[in-house]
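call fold(seq) -> C-alpha cells
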Amino acid sequence: MSDTLDFLEQRHPLQREADLMSGLPQLIARAQGAQGWARILHGVAAGEIRDRAALAQLPLTRKSDLHGLQARQPPLGALNTTPHRQLRRLYVSPGPIFDPEGYGQDWWRFARPMRALGLRAGDLIQNCFAYHFTPAAFMVEGAASKLGCAVIPAGIGQTELQVQAMSALRPDAYVGTPSFLKIIIEKAREMGADIGTVQRALLSAEALPPSLRQWFHDNGVPHVLQLYASADVGNIAYESLSDGRLNPGMILDEDLILEIVRPGSGDPVAAGEVGEVVLTSFNPDYPLIRFATGDLSAVLEGVSPCGRTNTRIKGWMGRADQVTKVRGMFVHPSQLAEVLKRHPQVLKARLVVSGAMASDVMTLHCETQGAPASVAEQVADSLRDVTKLRGEVLLVAPGSLPNDGKVIEDARKYE
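ret:
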C-alpha cells in the first residue's frame, strides 16, 4: 500500500501487541531512572510489567496533574529521561505546562498522518499552526523533514498574506486548524485569488463537524483528514483515505499503548464502551506511563479499509472531567469509582443530578444483574459516606445506561 509510512502499519495485530508488550519492561525501567517516575512507580518491578493486566495495575498520571508536578520539580516534573538542557526545544502551553522536544527525527510521530493524507517528497505544505511557544507547527516541520516535503512557515493570522502566499507559491496542502482554513478560503474568494492547488488538508486542535468537512469539499478541498494529537504525546490517532474516500474511525499511532478506562478510575472498560483515553508512550526523552488525557473515546471494532491494522478509535467524544458541584460540594468521578469498588454487584453506574437551583437531587443509577433490593440501600450508604451527600439509588438492568462515557450527568434546570 503506497500511502503507508512503513511495514509497522500493516503488522498482524497479534504481532503488534507482542512487540509493544515486550518493550514494556525496558520502558518502565528507563522511566524509573527519572526522579518523577521513580516516585510515581515506587515499588514497581519493571520486569514484571509484561502485559496489559500488569500495566493496568500501575497508577494513572493525569494531564491535569502536570502543572503541580512541574511546580514541584521544575521544569518538567522530573518525568524527562533526557536532561532538559539537552533537549531541542521547550514549549509553554496554557496552564502553564511545559512540554519538551528531543532531537530524534519526526520526534512527534507526525509523518504517519501526513503520509495518510497522500503527502510525498517534493510536495509543498502551508503550515498554519502557531510557531509561538506551542509545539504544533514544529510537529509538522519534523514530519515534513522526514517525508521530504517543503514547508511555508505561515503560522496563524495575516489572512491576506496567507492567501497571497498560497496563490503565488501553489502549495499542495494546508495543515492547521479547520476554522482558519475556512477563513483563508473565504478571504481568497473575496480577493478573487486562485488557491486551487490546495487539494489536501490535515486539520487538528478543533472540532471538525461533518457540515464543515462537507463545506471544504464543496469549496475546492476534496481530501480532508482529521488528526488527534496533544502537546504532551504528539500524534495519537489519525484518519485515512481509500481511493479518495474517508474511512471510519481514527487509527492509533504505532508507538503508543492505548487503554480506554472508566472516568474517575484506572479500570479498563469493555471494547466499544466510551471511556477516558489513557496512553503509554515509548518516547525515549519523555516517556509517559498510563497518561490520562482527560479525553473521551471508544475503540471501533475491526481494521480500517485502508489496510492499516492498528486499533481504531471513534475520535474525540468529549471530556472525562465531569466534576459537578452539588449542594455546595464537589462530586468527582473518582468518588463514584470508590463507591463501585465497595459493591462488585454494580456493573456500571451513572450519577444523575436533577432538580432546580438550590434543590439538587442526586440519583445513582446502578446496572446490576439479579442483585437483591437491599443492595440499593447499601450503595446509598456508601455514596453518603464517600461524597458526604445523600442520594437515591436506582437499580437498573444491564445495558440500560447510555454508552457515552459519562459517570456524572448534570440534568438540573437553570432557568
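The first strand starts at residue 61 and ends at 62.
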